[in-house]
Amino acid sequence: MKNKYKLIRKIRKNGTSLAINIPKEIVEIMNIKEGELIEIEISKI
Fold first, then answer.
1. For residues 9 and 19, what is the distance between their CA atoms, to the nearest angstrom?
2. What is the pLDDT, as a whole number, of residue 5?
3. Residue 32 near residue 22 (C-beta atoms within 8 A)
4. Cα–Cα distance between 31 and 10 in angstroms, integer?
5. Exposure of 30 by Cβ count < 10 A (0-12 exposed, 13-18 middle, 19+ buried)?
6. Quick one: pLDDT at residue 27?
7. Residue 20 falls within a domain, yes or no?
8. What are the tens digits of pLDDT across the range 1-38?
9. Alpha-carbon dihedral angle through residues 15, 19, 20, 25, given to the nearest 10 degrees
10. Is 3 among the domain residues?
């Protein structure tokens, strides 16, 4: 079973796109590398 983490993040502007930051701790725990595909579920709160 894959680890899942639920985060509440603020969207910021990055050039002409919108972006979110993933905390360093989550990146390290899940061993996420640049260029990998990840699944993100988005809902407005």
1. 10
2. 87
3. yes
4. 23
5. middle
6. 94
7. yes
8. 478 889 999 999 999 999 999 999 999 999 999 999 99
9. -70
10. yes
Residue 38 lies in a domain: no
Per DSSP, which regions of 1-45 are E strands?
12-14, 17-19
Domains in the chain, number? 1
Q: Is residue 44 part of a domain?
A: no
**Can you tell me the distance from the alpha carbon of 19 to that of 31, in angstroms, rounded to the nearest whole number?**
20
Tokens found for residue 41: 């579920």
Q: Mark out the alpha helices in 1-45 (DSSP H runs).
A: 24-30
Tell me the residue range of the domain where 22 lies.
1-31
| Report field, pTM of the whole predicted structure over 0.85 | no
**Which amino acid, residue 43?**
S
